Amino acid sequence: MYGIRLLQELPGEKILVMSDTAKKIIPAETGHSVEEVEKMADEVYSQDDLMAPIASGTFDYDIMFVVPCTESSVAKFAAGMGDDLISRAFMCALKEGRKTVLVPRETPKSAIMLENELKLARLGVVILDANPAFYPNPKTVSDMVDFIVGRCLMQAGIDQDLFERWGSSD
Description:
- It contains seven helices and five strands.
- It has helices spanning 2-9, 20-30, 34-38, 71-78, 85-96, 111-122, 141-155; strands spanning 15-17, 43-45, 63-69, 99-104, 126-127.
- α6 (111-122) links the parallel β4 and β5 (126-127).
- α1 packs across α7 (141-155).
């Protein structure tokens, strides 16, 4: 749901690459079809399309999100592997100094997972764990998802109204 809500809320052009595993999980976890999710993006590329424009460092964009991001992908990114379009696009973002946000949702984490995340954080990658806050008093699972998506939007410098910031009042 995190990736779907982010697609729904992000303004501007959206490019989508879904892993084969994501395509299997989407119907089971979200009630959406893969086709419905693909329609939320302006461009969609296959995970194995290494000729896609985003596989090049010369392709210009504002920010890259990997939402959700498995710890297997984190490990691949930390090792510098770019063997599919998602990891290749990440490698390009990293080498070009583009803002990149990973939203891992796995827990608990092993020392290896934490070390991989630390390595990437030291390289400037934002690690935004899918940990909802409770100060906005979420009432539904959607409220908790919106908190994470709102935090993603904030990382992109986009105003969000999905949750009330800490200390703000209406």
